[in-house]
């Protein structure tokens, strides 16, 4: 999967919602494993926050995988522009 495809996969998970003092899914992550599988996650802004990357890694480990090939995180600016972080490999 290309970086752009991974970014778009993560972006498709952005679905922010504010509930009381908590903000959910304003940042999303997608990762590709060594086996080529894709896992996603979103930020969970609760009393004990879980970042989007941790959420995606938790999904990967739950599925029995442990090697990350690529990982990206995305969010939208106040103007709606898609922003992202793609670490160099």
Structure characterization notes:
This protein starts with a helix and ends with a strand. It has one domain (3-79): Cytidine Deaminase, domain 2 (3-Layer(aba) Sandwich). The radius of gyration is 13 Å and the shape is flat. The chain is of the alpha+beta class. It is 22% helix and 40% strand. The model has no long low-confidence stretch (mean pLDDT 92). A hairpin with a 4-residue loop joins strand 2 and strand 3 (38-45). Strands 1, 2, 3, 4 and 5 form a five-stranded antiparallel beta sheet that branches. The longest helix has 11 residues, at 52-62.
| Average pLDDT level | 92
- What is the count of distinct domains? 1
**Fraction of residues in H or I helices:** 10-25%
Spell out the helices and strands N to C.
HEEEHEE
Q: What would CATH call the architecture?
A: 3-Layer(aba) Sandwich
Flag low-confidence runs: none
The assigned structural class equals alpha+beta
* Secondary structure: number of strands: 5
Rg over CA atoms, rounded to whole Å, is 13 Å
End-to-end separation in angstroms reads: 14 Å
* Biggest sheet record: 5 strands, antiparallel
CATH class: Alpha Beta
How many DSSP H or I helices?
A: 2
Assign an overall shape: flat
**Strand residue content:** 35-45%
Write out the CATH superfamily name: Cytidine Deaminase, domain 2
